[in-house]
C-alpha cells in the first residue's frame, strides 16, 4: 500500500483527478474490506482535491445512512425521497447542483455548503451507496468532476 498521497496542488483540477485516481486504485488494491477502502478513498479525495465535505451514504435499512466521510459533522439518515442524495438514489444518476438553495428539498447539513455533486454506485440494478461531495463555493462542480468521479464509482462498484 502507498504510504502517502502525492497530488501537486499547482495542477489543474483535471490533472489532480488524473494523478489521484490511480493512487486510490493502488491504495485499495488487495484490500477486501469495503469500509476500509471507502474510508481511504474519501480521505484521498479530501486531501487531493480539498473538498469542503466528501463522504458516502449507504443504502441500508430502507434509507440512506451516513458512512465514512471527511469534513464537518453531517446528518446521519436521509429518506429516499429527500434532498440531493435522495434524488440521486431515486433517479439512479449523477446530480450536479450549482446552487443548493435553488434545489427544492436540499438538506443543509452545513450552511457553508453552496454547491454539490452526488453520484450513485449501482450494482445489479440497485443503488448500493451514493457519494456526496459539497463545496463552500457556488457552481464548483462541472463535467470534469462528473467524468472522473463516475470513473471512481466504477472502482467502488468492483468492491461489491
Ligand atoms: N445536502 C445533502 C445532504 C447530505 S450533506 O450535504 C453531507 C442532500 O441534500 O441530500
From TrEMBL:
GO terms for cellular component: cytosol. Residues 43-156 form the GAF domain. It comes from the Bacteria. Pfam families: GAF_2. SUPFAM superfamilies: GAF domain-like (SSF55781). InterPro entries: GAF, GAF-like_dom_sf, Phosphatase_reg/MetRdx. GO terms for molecular function: L-methionine-(R)-S-oxide reductase activity. Belongs to the free Met sulfoxide reductase family. This is GAF domain-containing protein.
Amino acid at each position: 500500500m502507498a504510504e502517502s498521497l502525492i497530488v501537486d496542488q499547482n495542477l489543474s483540477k483535471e490533472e489532480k483527478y488524473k494523478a489521484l485516481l490511480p493512487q486510490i486504485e493502488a491504495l485499495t488494491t488487495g484490500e477486501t474490506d469495503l469500509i476500509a477502502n471507502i474510508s481511504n478513498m474519501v480521505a484521498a479525495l479530501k486531501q487531493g482535491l480539498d473538498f469542503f465535505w466528501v463522504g458516502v451514504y449507504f443504502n441500508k435499512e430502507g434509507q440512506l445512512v451516513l458512512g465514512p466521510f471527511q469534513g464537518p459533522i453531517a446528518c446521519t439518515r436521509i429518506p429516499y425521497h429527500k434532498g440531493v442524495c435522495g434524488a440521486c438514489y431515486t433517479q439512479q444518476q449523477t446530480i450536479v447542483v450549482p446552487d443548493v438553495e435553488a434545489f427544492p428539498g436540499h438538506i443543509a447539513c452545513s450552511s457553508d455548503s453552496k454547491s454539490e455533486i452526488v453520484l450513485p454506485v449501482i450494482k445489479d440494478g440497485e443503488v448500493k451507496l451514493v457519494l456526496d461531495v459539497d463545496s463552500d463555493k457556488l457552481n464548483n462542480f462541472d463535467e470534469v468532476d462528473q467524468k472522473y468521479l463516475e470513473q471512481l464509482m466504477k472502482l467502488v462498484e468492483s468492491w461489491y
